[in-house]
């Protein structure tokens, strides 16, 4: 593998994991958020060689077979998504948040999710969804 290939390119082009989206390409929008060994990272910034041997979780890895995760179900029920461009990154960031804080406060939700930009929903549905999944 070439050392200059980004993780997002390997995920999307080589592995067919197209749930992870590329938005800004500079690591500020959150659309390409993935978990690498449990750490929330931007796949558009990470050289793929740095993830070699690591456990990488994309939005495709949140469901168990055909069964959506409780967080995914909450996003649907609470209106935490719209167009789908930012939703995968939102779900990954919220997964990392809930792994760190099982019952996050509003301030913790805002802090963890501020790196994920959404142009469609506002953030009320996303916040409701995270709280519902935490309950």
Features:
Ubiquitin-like (UB roll), 2 domains, 135 residues, mainly alpha, single chain, globular, 37% helix
Can you describe what's shown?
This protein is mainly alpha-helical. The chain has two domains: 7-61, Beta-grasp domain (Ubiquitin-like (UB roll), Roll), CATH 3.10.20; 70-134, Orthogonal Bundle (DNA polymerase, domain 1). It is built from five helices and three strands; from the N terminus they run H-E-E-E-H-H-H-H. It has a three-stranded antiparallel β-sheet, with helices on one face. The longest helix is centred in the C-terminal third of the chain and has 14 residues, at 87-100. The model has no long low-confidence stretch (mean pLDDT 94).
The end-to-end span amounts to 43 Å
- Report the helical percentage: 25-40%
**Total beta strands:** 3
Q: Low-confidence parts, pLDDT < 50 over ≥5 residues? A: none
How many discrete structural domains?
2
Mean pLDDT: 94
Alpha-carbon Rg, integer: 14 Å
SSE blueprint and pairings:
Blueprint: H1 7-14, E1 33-36, E2 39-42, E3 56-57, H2 70-78, H3 87-100, H4 106-113, H5 124-134
Antiparallel strand pairs: 1-2, 1-3
Helix pairs in contact: 2-5, 3-4
Short structural summary:
This protein has helices at residues 7-14, 70-78, 87-100, 106-113, 124-134; strands at 33-36, 39-42, 56-57. It is mainly α.
């Amino acid at each position: 593998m070439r050392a200059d290939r980004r993780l997002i390119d390997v995920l999307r082009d080589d592995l067919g994991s197209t749930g992870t989206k590329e938005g800004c390409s500079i690591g500020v929008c959150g659309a390409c958020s993935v978990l690498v060994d449990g750490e929330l990272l931007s796949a558009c910034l990470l050289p793929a060689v740095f993830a070699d041997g690591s456990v990488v979780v994309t939005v495709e890895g949140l469901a168990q077979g055909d069964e959506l995760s409780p967080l995914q179900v909450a996003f649907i029920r609470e209106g935490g998504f719209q167009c789908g461009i930012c939703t995968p990154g939102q779900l990954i960031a919220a997964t990392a948040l809930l792994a760190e804080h099982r019952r996050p406060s509003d301030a913790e939700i805002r802090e963890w999710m501020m790196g994920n930009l959404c142009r469609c929903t506002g953030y009320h549905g996303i916040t409701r969804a995270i709280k519902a999944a935490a309950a």
